[in-house]
From TrEMBL:
Protein name: ABC-type sugar transport system ATPase subunit
SUPFAM superfamilies: MOP-like (SSF50331), P-loop containing nucleoside triphosphate hydrolases (SSF52540)
Transmembrane domains' residue ranges: none
Statement: the UniProt record of this protein carries the keyword Chloroplast: no
Species annotation: Phytomonospora endophytica
Source taxon at top rank: Bacteria
Pfam family name, one: OB_MalK
One Gene Ontology MF term: ATP hydrolysis activity
Keywords, ordered alphabetically: ATP-binding, Nucleotide-binding, Sugar transport, Transport
Keyword ATP-binding: yes
GO cellular component term of the entry, any: ATP-binding cassette (ABC) transporter complex, substrate-binding subunit-containing
Length: 356
């Protein structure tokens, strides 16, 4: 169990004839021994590049990467003791699953008996014992993904890097594998970074989540902190399904937001009067009541069994919003729904900065 530290890590790609790309622009993070950190962000934000720099598959342009206090910068991948499971598996086709797992262990001076024991143990834990003698070509994508994971784990790495490890599994498999992965990671105590663009995966698996955008870290926090207390408009928009409602308005200087001439709702944050703001309210923080602070006119009601979702238009404002309700409500298009606004967050309308 080693801790992993990234200090001011940067990566700039220079491709001849093309503008340079600043893929990672100063990444600071300390991952504690045995911790699982999820790297979450939209496509192209620099997640994989960060992972590849830790693995040694890309050199850093600047900054330092340390494991257990020792710098990895300049070391080739094979001297880093970092286990990597990539989305595209990178398995060796001519080798059986068992040989794929054992590959690399011999080069590390691990004897035959120990190699066999390790492969058998990891295969058992990951549930691939029955396919150890098969070759990758005959495996389903879910099986290949498990083999890639087993191969990363079998080396008993200081740090385990997982790049979209569940992306090729169907929904049912993904659920099971996600739970297994978490159990395995806890059991073996690996310091782990998981890259994903799937927020549900990051929020359900990780001890802490790093939200990235455009090469920078936007927020680091526990899943609850990221969901409940987004540090910026970007995080508020990116995390949460269905997304947070963001209602444009003007601060009244007294802790309220004017959504229209006639409608002011309390925001609990006294932004300067006249400042353009966005009031963020999650769908579950809006409640249909006898009398409300605002009235919305229902457009669509979806019954999702565990809960219902009303898409509605704010009366007198025109903004659309989504309200989470109990399931099976008899809501019809055109129904007028008085809404009580519960917990809200406030963001600057121009910069997206969180106002507190
Ligand atoms: P995805 O989820 O789509 O994999 P990502 O967040 O992992 O995205 P990266 O793959 O790290 O993003 O890419 C970050 C930026 O760096 C992108 O603009 C990408 O085009 C660029 N990039 C990545 N690898 C290279 C490379 N070898 N040469 C030039 N540009 C690159």
């Amino acid at each position: 169990m080693s801790d992993l530290e990234l200090a001011g890590v940067r990566k700039t790609f220079h491709t001849k004839g093309r503008p340079e790309v600043e893929a990672v622009r100063g990444f600071d993070l300390t991952v504690g021994g045995g911790e699982l950190v999820g790297l979450l962000g939209p496509s192209g934000c620099g997640k994989s590049t960060t992972l590849r720099m830790i693995a040694g598959l890309e050199e850093v342009t600047g900054g330092d990467i340390r494991v257990g206090g020792r710098s990895l910068v300049g070391l080739p991948p094979q001297r880093r003791n970092v286990g990597v499971a990539f989305e595209n598996y990178a398995l060796y086709p001519p080798l059986t699953v068992a040989e794929n797992l054992a590959f690399g262990l011999a080069a590390r001076g691990i004897g035959r008996a120990e190699r066999k024991a390790r492969v058998a143990d990891v295969a058992e834990r990951i549930g691939i014992t029955s396919i150890l003698r098969q070759r990758p070509a005959g495996l389903s994508s879910g099986q290949k993904q498990r083999v890639a994971l087993a191969r990363a784990v079998v080396r008993a790495p200081d740090v385990l890097l997982l790049d979209e490890p569940l992306s090729h599994l169907d929904a049912a498999q993904r659920d099971v594998t996600r739970r297994e992965l978490r159990r395995l990671q806890r059991e073996l105590g690996y310091t782990t970074i998981l890259v994903t663009h799937d927020q549900e995966e990051a929020l359900s698996l990780a001890d802490r989540v790093v939200v990235m955008n455009d090469g920078v870290v936007c927020q680091v926090g526990t899943p609850d902190e990221i969901y409940d207390d987004p540090a910026s408009l970007f995080v508020a928009r990116f995390v949460g399904e269905p997304a947070m409602n963001l209602l444009p308005g003007v601060a009244d200087g007294e802790g309220g937001v004017r959504l229209s001439d006639a409608i002011t709702v309390p925001a609990g944050v006294a932004a300067a009067s006249g400042r353009e703001v966005l009031l963020g309210v999650r769908p579950e923080d809006l409640a249909i009541a006898e009398t409300g602070e605002v009235t919305a006119v229902a457009v669509v009601y979806e019954d999702l069994r565990e809960y219902g979702l009303v898409t509605a238009e704010l009366d007198g404002v025109g903004e659309k919003l989504v309200v989470q309700t109990e399931p099976g409500l008899p809501v019809r298009p055109g129904d007028r729904l008085p809404l009580v606004v519960g917990r809200s967050r406030l963001f600057d309308g121009e910069t997206g900065e969180r106002l507190r």
